[in-house]
Amino acid sequence: MVAIKTRAGGETLIEQSALDEYRSGLGGETLTPEDAAYEEVREIWNAMIDSRPALVARCRDADDVVHSVNFARANDLLVSVRGAGHNIAGNSLTDGGLLIDLSQMTAVDVDEATKTARVEPGATLGQVDAATQAFGLATPTGINSTTGIAGLTLGGGFGWLSRSYGLTIDNLLSADVVTAGGDLVTTSESNHPELFWGIRGGGGNFGIVTSFHYQLHEVGPELLSGLIVHDAGDALAVLEFYREFAAQAPDELTIWVVMRKAPPLPFLDEAVHGTDVVVLALLYNGDMADGEEVIAPLRALGNPVGEHIGPNPYVGWQQAFDPLLTPGARNYWKSHNFGDLSDETIAVLLRYAGDLPSDFSEIFIAQVGGATSRVSGDATAYVGRDAAFVLNVHTRWEEAADDDRCVAWAREFFDATLPEAIDGAYVNFMTAEESGRVEAAYGANYERLVAVKGEYDPNNMFRLNQNIVPSGQQ
Ligand SMILES: Cc1cc2nc3c(=O)[nH]c(=O)nc-3n(C[C@H](O)[C@H](O)[C@H](O)COP(=O)(O)OP(=O)(O)OC[C@H]3O[C@@H](n4cnc5c(N)ncnc54)[C@H](O)[C@@H]3O)c2cc1C
After folding, report:
1. 390 Cβ inside 6 Å of ligand 1
2. What pTM, to 2 d.p., does this model score?
3. Segment 169-180, tens digit of pLDDT
């Protein structure tokens, strides 16, 4: 017998016979807190999250997912869905409910002829990149290779190739989804089109995706990429130059700004390590010589304290930030979209970058635009097509005793940048406490999302996410 939380907030006792029947129909295993592998499954990227599911279903395939959704529905269980477990909000875990764990479903099948790939939902970006680059192909994803492809795609997905080829969802051709009713459907522009619209930005609200089908592009295998590091004392000049340069940059070029304390990178003088720096991280997705010419003015700017730019394997560059983003630290994020970097925004950035709450905290400015902005705002559920930059206040520390101070700093910084931010927000960068921001985050697309939710998950089985509440539910 096992006690599991219900969707409505109570608890239900599942009889041993019912549990045995469920287990016998599952290809994968189930775990309870007594099992050795339990602790490993509930470890996710953000160490702030310490939830303990009552039961874990380790799915092996779509049949296991259907079986688990039917079991959850029959018993009205509170359900969470885990891909690679990277999301800052920690909604992939439930405290006391059923965790449907997809992390063992990691197959990536590339079709070289059609330049497409079918990807299971537990795959990480690193696994996707490795499999696709074996054929010289890639699809746009994110900048940290241990991130999960499922959560990233369902929220939108952007990284080094997005200005060239759009968001990850703009390269999604179809997906297999298990709905709350336990049906396995293939959704695309022509099949269940409203569901397809919804899963492209609407997160895990409408069902569990068991397979993603992506368009791939010829990429690399080596691309011009690297870092230019400036002392924080030059940050004003660097940011003022950056906003002009980024505004006229070709789609092939993507430049992200990172403001933080300098990590001990081998190309930096030891005296620079630990000092406040502003880093321009860039990739040129095109001919190497063209890229050299395009970025020449950026390299000529001021007096960098270090530079490391050259041809890098795309797969390697996709892992460049991994050492700074390892799992297991305490993290708290806040994010806004910006149409440009105004003088006021830059002034706030400089003020807070000079007062980081920990040695590992970072201010990330992701450059988007390019192909991401040439898709209309209502073509997919994702909003933010008009964002040129996505700011992520990325607070990171190690001791629980520092929680309040670090969280307060991030919130204050977020509030200070609010006046210059544009509407909409990236749901994949939102924390668990931001459920009140979901409607505003989706803006004009929200009502349509509520309608899709009503059709595919009217009882809100999939509620542990940035939740779109169906009409008539709370
Ligand atoms: C260090 C770091 C770097 C990042 N960098 C980027 C970046 O460069 N670009 C970018 O766009 N994003 C980035 N992100 C955000 C990232 O896209 C989200 O955290 C994303 O949710 C991670 O996906 P996951 O599968 O690992 O998440 P999980 O935590 O496993 O899942 C997140 C949520 O997605 C839903 N979900 C997961 N799998 C499924 C499924 N198969 N079916 C239905 N619902 C599902 C569930 O609601 C779940 O709660 C980054 C995150 C981190 C922590």
Report:
1. no
2. 0.97
3. 999 999 999 999
